[in-house]
Amino acid sequence: LGVLDTPRAPTDDAAVANGAAADQGDAPAGGESGGRSGVGGACLTVPLTWPGGPSSESAQVSDACINPHPRFGTLAANIRKRRGSKVAVRMPLFKDAHTPEFATHDLDCPEVEARAGAGARAAPEQDGGGGGESVRGEPLPFHLEAWGDKWPMVTGDCMAFGMGSCCLQVTFQSRDVHESRFMFDQLAGLSPIMLALSAASPCFNGRLLDTDARWTSISQSVDDRTPQERGLGAEPAGTKEGGMAGGGVRRLSKSRYDSVSCFLSLYTPEAYNDIPCEVDEAARASLLEAGVDPVLARHVAHLFTRDPLVMYQGSIEEIPDDGSRTDHWESLQSTNWQTMRWKPPPAMPASASDAQDPASRDYAHIGWRTEFRSMEVQLTDFENAAYTVFIVLLTRVLLVFDLDLLLPLSKIDANMQRAHARAPVKTQKFWFRKDVTPGACRAPCPQERAACEEASRLKRAQAEAERLAALESGVPVAAGSAGARAEPSEELFEEMSMGEVLGGKGDYFPGLVPLCYAYLDHIKCDRETFKRVDM
Description:
Blueprint: E1 2-5, H1 13-20, H2 70-83, E2 89-92, H3 112-116, H4 124-127, E3 153-156, H5 160-163, E4 167-173, H6 177-188, H7 191-198, E5 203-204, E6 207-208, H8 215-221, E7 257-258, H9 281-289, H10 294-303, H11 327-333, E8 337-338, E9 340-343, H12 358-364, E10 369-375, H13 381-400, H14 409-419, H15 424-427, E11 429-433, H16 446-473, E12 493-497, H17 498-503, H18 512-522, H19 527-533
Parallel strand pairs: 1-4, 7-8
Antiparallel strand pairs: 2-3, 4-10, 5-6, 9-10, 11-12
């Protein structure tokens, strides 16, 4: 379940100001992530039903809990069948004074901050799959490595334990494809920050957890990787499954529901991609041959390491291969659930090609979009509106002030681990960029602000063109040119508390909230709107 906010048109300063004034009546309704699924014998359905069914084969949850649309039962069944077993969701149990599972375990609360690490996680072939081992020999997902193999876990055995959670997702429309890719990379580093800030899922299967974030439960609940893809042993002879992507044996570092594994913009230096990112080589070669740049080709080819989980009868071979339909792309794209999703415009059907046709106007406004997917839904509509407005304001701050929030992917994954700690806002420090305003625009009037924003856009376009030329020619970008952006080095980043990320640190990092206020002042936000944003 999710509250998804998608704009009808690209957002401008006036729209941001109007959106910032949203009150409780303006936001879609939502509910917190529930934690009672799987409790007791009969399931919490009306009428009561017992666990199991052909889709989930669960020992804890009834198929009656699954949405009756064919997509959802098919997803549950195909995840289980492709994996070769039921999913195994494990969530760390909260240690209270008399929690019985800890009677025989002398365990202290895990130091997530210390265990998360500062650098890239080792490649799969170096660490045997990474993370602590469960009692059944299954590696823990990297989000939970800090708890280790002895920590008691609360378990779930089907997709409902994750996909039954709630979330808050916001989609932004950009002016063009380049800006949408830039926003993908810049916002990726904020995804674990906002996950930690909005964390609201302290229960699972009727038990209190030692984590407040839902993310890893969903990641595990839809993990359709085979044992070989999860790194559980070498590929046995003759076991490749010809119908599966990669034969079902290619090592895949993450679940198909996880943090991003590669950046998307040509403006981002390659050195920031410092974690494993598997690709389908045939798909990448086809994309490169068609003229797609290498960075975008890698992103799409990474999606194609997964199999489509749901196909509809009459929409397979019947879909014309002429670019007029994107059904097959959306089938794969919509089941790659990452913290960020890049969303190209839908193909416009022939029936909507007439400018006078209302359908044409419906399609014409849908451009290049970027979806921010990590936040958890809150108890009230007002809180959901507040988180939505905050993220929208940050997108405008990024573009208007020409900020740089980029982090290496290894540090983003370290932050994802820390976001899964209990009370992460109070207990954790997160990697963040120290200087986010190298080219900040402080023009006093609207005309000069617009000129600054356009200059920043042109600078990024020039840098992207130079990097693309370098990728195609093999000749490095010349020093001092727009495309020669600084490579990541440790002095660019440091660990900050959530208070410092939001409110600022020292005289070098202003903080995300003061930057939003500076933007509202920058656009001469009217007094009433400013008052409501400041609630």
